[in-house]
Automatic annotation (TrEMBL):
Keyword Metal-binding: yes
A Pfam family per the record: p450
Organism in which the protein naturally occurs: Escallonia rubra
GO-annotated cellular components: membrane
Membrane topology, from the record: Single-pass membrane protein
Name assigned to this protein: Cytochrome P450
Cellular compartments annotated: Membrane
């Protein structure tokens, strides 16, 4: 779809086939992000990684990100942080058991603590302000400190330019997307009690009365992993990936001029009826026998994007999501607050940079005695 927005051309890419053209065949042409006015504010004048132009500084930043911060070894090294914060979540939910709680808020706080402790070594000064700012879409006034968690980074060339990434991109990118995923997964499970029961049966069978869930336990949770995949198909937090062409190219017989903005519509791609049976239904089982994965090679399923600008935080995002979900489902039974029936749960999506729920998830949690 072509939109003429002011002087610039914009294309919306809504099919797996067209996404493959843009993100694979013309990957290098579309490795830029558009420089919107909003980016200049939210993206700190393109100084962060997400909105950075495709240049040496971005390459250096990305390397630091993938090797020093978000590589498999680094992600593993933050295991105790994730487990501690998720344990606090359990305590916090248990303290309000039997009464209505705003689960969206609790998930946001937990993810925020996990990401900030991993990125900064301690809880973000003004974490509550930051959570509020994420909810409101405003700028956080508190600012962040970068302690000496990664002292070696200071000696890398361009460190002063990459510092903002550690401070803002990782924090904001990691918190918002992961929170949204956990929240939608819980909402879908509350709306689909059969899937909830199946997930809890798997957990209680695999964990067999364990008091505490460790990250390794999630490896065996096949159905839980399918739930996360299905949630990201229906609710990709970054529903529109922004890219821009750096030179003319041809796609499906159309000339796409230089500086055309392209939005890859992951939301539409994940619900394409030519590729997905009952596309609007939450059916985690569809991934049972499927080889479709997160790695960006299946163009009908791109929740983390693909190519040069693909998300570097997949491992961090997935384990944080899985651990929170597994723990909440294992330790508690869940129902919707205010007498709302599963089929009545409002699933309206809010307008914003990431696709969140319009209404918070108000629930009642009952602790499971054996857990
Ligand atoms: C469920 C969780 C997450 C989802 C669904 C997600 C999704 C995405 C998507 C769709 C993109 C754009 C990719 C493209 O243009 O092809 C992206 C980029 C990015 N993500 Fe994530 N993300 C998640 C978690 C994280 C986490 C935990 C971090 C860091 C801690 C992170 C950091 C980034 C960064 C820095 C970029 C920009 C990469 C670049 O432009 O080179 N993300 N993410």
């Amino acid at each position: 779809m072509h939109l003429q927005l002011g002087e610039g051309s914009t294309i919306i890419v809504s099919s797996p086939e067209a996404a493959e053209q843009v993100l694979k065949k013309h990957d290098l042409v579309f490795a830029q992000r558009p420089n919107f006015y909003a980016n200049q504010i939210a993206g700190y004048d393109q100084s962060g990684l997400f909105f950075a132009p495709n240049d040496d500084s971005w390459r250096q930043s990305r390397k630091i990100c993938t090797v020093e911060l978000l590589g498999a070894k680094q992600v593993r090294s933050f295991k105790s942080v994730r487990e501690e914060e998720v344990e606090k979540l359990v305590v916090s939910i248990a303290s309000s058991s039997g009464t209505s709680i705003n689960l969206s808020e609790k998930i946001l706080k937990t993810t925020n603590s996990i990401v900030s402790r991993s990125a900064f070594g301690n809880k973000c000064r003004g974490a509550d302000d930051f959570c509020q700012a994420l909810k409101d879409g405003n700028e956080c006034s508190s600012g962040f400190d970068l302690p000496d968690l990664f002292p070696s980074l200071k000696f890398l060339p361009l460190f002063s330019r990459t510092k903002p990434i550690l401070e803002k991109d990782i924090f904001a990118g990691g918190t918002d997307t992961t929170t949204t995923t956990v929240e939608w997964a819980m909402a879908e499970l509350l709306k689909n009690p059969k899937e909830m029961a199946k997930a809890q049966a798997e957990l209680r069978h695999v964990l067999e009365g364990k008091i505490k869930i460790h990250e390794e336990d999630t490896h065996e949770l096949r159905f839980l992993k399918q739930i996360v995949k299905e949630t990201l198909r229906l609710h990709p937090p970054g529903a529109l990936i922004p890219r821009e062409s750096k030179e003319d190219c041809e796609i499906n017989g159309f000339l796409i001029p230089r500086k055309t903005k392209a939005f890859i519509n992951l939301w539409a791609i994940g619900r394409d009826p030519r590729h997905w049976r009952d596309p609007d239904c939450f059916i985690p089982d569809r991934f049972e026998e499927s080889s479709v994965n997160y790695m960006g090679t299946n163009f009908q399923y791109l929740p983390f994007g693909t190519g040069r600008r693909m998300c570097p935080g997949i491992a961090f995002g997935i384990i944080t999501t899985e651990l929170q979900l597994a723990t909440m489902l294992y330790h508690f039974n869940w129902e919707l607050a205010d007498g709302i029936k599963p089929e009545e749960l409002d699933m309206t999506e809010a307008f914003g940079l990431s696709v969140k729920r319009t209404h918070p998830l108000n629930v009642i949690a009952t602790p499971v005695p054996f857990a």
